[in-house]
Design goal:
With about 260 residues, the protein is an alpha+beta fold. It has five helices and 15 strands. The protein has three domains: about 90 residues, no CATH class; about 30 residues; about 130 residues, Nucleoside Triphosphate Pyrophosphohydrolase (Alpha-Beta Complex). It starts with 5 loop residues before the first strand and ends with a helix. About 25% of the residues are buried. Belongs to the Nudix hydrolase family. NudC subfamily.
Length: about 260
Amino acid sequence: MNWKARVLALDGLMPAIGDDGGLVWGTLADAPEDAELCFLGLDEGKACFAVVPPKGDASPRMANPRLWSLMATLRPDDLAIYGGARSLTDWHARHRFCAACGGATKLAKGGWQRDCTACGASHFPRTDPVTIMLVEYQGKLMLGRGLGWPEGSFSALAGFVEPGESIEEAVNREVLEEAGITVRDVSYIASQPWPFPSQLMIGCHSHADSDELTIDETEMAEINFYTREEVEAALAGNGPFRCPPRHAIAHHLMQWWVKR
């Protein structure tokens, strides 16, 4: 047994945080004897693993405020490691049976595949593309508050890319559905993995043809337009709304907008 290998300490899918504020690592001896182990990569020559938990968790991140608070304290490198480990082990925990025949599956290729023990079908961890977009109209930025969000909390609109859509089409459709506004000149800015449970957030910028809102009240509580000065003040912590946390791509998109 390789005692130099490291195993990420997790309580189910929750991260363990050390006295230094970073992730906690153990050895293979700390893992249950019959555990499924996912290979995360190498760090200074040491193999790093994470244990697949008994249950997965496909609930949105807003449903777990404790996790949200813990993530805000992690360093960027630890946040990236935890995000990858959470997404991968959660997928394994929720895919123990074959989608083709219903047979039991087993971990393969170090955790980057599951194989059906009955029909032999191979299954692979999924990533779901989500557009998250800044919408600009005459120097103002559109931001929204989703249903169930805390009062005063606003972010960029976002939505899953549907089958057969391009990124540009998904941006246009989502904004039209949620705000009743057509956008144009969609451009890509940046992306971010988001392990709730397995999204890839695709950050975009676009221009609106109008500011006449028709809000989809089944998804959004509020949508408003804010000036550059208002967004800048909110990023500094004293504006008319609360911004997304610094580790969220929406925060960085807003920073990009006020600085460009």
